[in-house]
Structure formats: C-alpha cells, structure tokens
Amino acid sequence: MLRDISQKIKSSKRIIIFTGAGISKDSGIQTFRDEDGLWKNFDPQKLATLDGFLKDPVMVWKWYISRIEKIKQAKPNMGHYFVANIEKINKATFVITQNIDGLHKKAGSKNVIELHGNVEQIKCLKCTYKKPYDDTDFSVLPPKCICGSLLRPDVVWFGEALPYESLIKAFNLAELADLAIIIGTSNLVYPAAEIPFIAKRNRSFIIEINPERTVLTPYVDIYLNNPSKDAYEMLISLLNSNEEKIS
Ligand code: ZN
Q1: What does pTM read for this prediction?
Q2: Residues with Cβ < 8 Å from 197, sequence gap 6 or more?
Q3: Which of 45, 93, 103 is nearest to 72 (CA)?
Q4: Each residue's pLDDT tens digit, 110-169
Q5: Which residue of the set 85, 116, 133, 145 is catalytic?
Q6: Residue pLDDT, tens place only, 175-187
Q7: How far is the CA of 101 from the centre of ligand 1 (A)?
Q8: Rounded to 5 degrees, what are φ and ψ at 27?
Q9: What is the pLDDT of residue 42?
Q10: Ligand 1 centre and the CA of 206: distance in Å?
Q11: How far, in Å, from the CA of 142 to the mean position of ligand 1?
C-alpha cells in the first residue's frame, strides 16, 4: 500500500494535502480536548471565543501565552516531513491546514494555507494592524495596538468565519487537484470539511490517513490507518527513490 501511495504521488500533477490536529499529535501538540495542567478546569470554548476575550482579555492572553510557548517548542514529526517531501518532488503541491502550530513550515513545506491562522502573529481587534508574536511586549497585559484597541492572537476562534481568501483559494485548489491526501482530520467541521468532497466531485484520487475511519472514508480510494514513524520513513524513501518514477 505504501508503494501504491508513493507511485500515485509521483504520477499526479496537482496535489493538495489537507491536514488537521491528528498530524501534530506526535509532536506533542494538545487539542482543546486533552488540555491539562494549569488550565484543565477552564472551558477552552470560553478562552477561544471573541466573547470570552472581551470579558477577560488578560486571562485569555495568559492562556494563549502558555499555549503558544508550548507550541513554539514543538518539533515537526515524520508526518510533517512526509508532507514536505511531496512538495520537494512536485512543486504544484499545496498544504491546506486547520492547525495553527506552524509545523508544516518548520518541516520545510512552502505552499501552506493556514485556514485557522497561526500563533506567530497577533492582530488588532479594530484596525488592520498585525505584528509578530515574538516582537510583542507581554509584560503588561493585555497588549494594545497603536490605535489604542486590544491586540489578539491571529487565529480563528470558535464561532468565527475562516479567512475568506484562504478558504476560496483552498476550494479552488481542491477543484484542480488530481490527488488529495487527507491526514489527521475527522472531516466534521464545515466549511473546511467540504475540501475533500470538492476534490472527490472533481474526480480527484483520494488518500486518507487517519487513526479511525471518518465520514469521508467510504469515498476514498486508499485508506491508510495511522502510519508508524517507520512507515512514514518508508514512504519518504519511496518518494525519493528514482526507480519508481513513472511519467
Ligand atoms: Zn489597531
């Protein structure tokens, strides 16, 4: 099956890779569901909504700072490197991710669409001002914009729309792709969950890599249960071997 996947990647012209929280699990990135420690008694839904932020920006910022500091220390895993290797052999490869951790870019992927924003940047609530997280002084909370308004993490919170341009770009890429690889997402949250189905409707070959079967699984061409680190390494070496290259 790994050989089939590698050959399919090599023979495809336009590829999208759609990823979710599952791909970052082996990098120690926790999802809201398994948040522990200091914040385990807090409701992430309240910490990750505009309403919650407006009620208590200091608490929300403290929570985000603890989360972002953990994320910044995380390293990409074999799954991210597998994805980055696909772009190395085919430049018409785009990663569309629901993750905010920046690990695809750290692994070397260049064409990355981050549907939920990322933790490297913060933005103003009112104006269009944005700045890097690392250049921000958090000694006085909450940080403020030059316009006087509050600065917030540049991520999509519960109840907020996905960035329009990124979403349209992702939909267009899904329409054009002849191969779509779906990794580590339950495919339940719309409109992003539409992406693999758009690809399917346009006769794209679909490969799903997930620990459990999802709503998408009945429609895919290859389903691969969560690969081990070794399996990912095998995939990477198959991708980089010339013998199998088919025109
Ligand atoms: Zn501002």
Answers
A1: 0.92
A2: 216, 219
A3: 103
A4: 999 999 999 999 999 999 999 999 999 999 999 999 999 999 999 999 889 999 999 999
A5: 116
A6: 999 999 999 998 8
A7: 24
A8: -95, 5
A9: 75
A10: 43
A11: 13
* Cβ contact 94:16 at 8 Å: yes
With the C-alpha atoms ordered 8, 76, 97, 43, is the resulting torsion angle positive or negative?
positive
3-state DSSP assignment of residue 112: strand
**How many Cα atoms are found within 13 Å in the side-chain-facing hemisphere of 237?**
5
Compute φ and ψ for 133, nearest 5 degrees: -55, -45
51 Cα–ligand 1 center, Å: 18
Is residue 116 flagged as an active site residue?
yes
Hey, how many other C-beta atoms are within 10 angstroms of the C-beta on 132? 10
Do residues 174 and 200 lie in contact, with contact meaning Cβ atoms separated by under 8 Å? no
Q: Tell me the per-residue pLDDT of 61-102, one tens digit each, with 9 for 90 and over.
A: 999 998 899 899 999 999 999 999 999 999 999 999 999 999
Distance (angstroms) between ligand 1 centre and the Cα of 100 equals 22
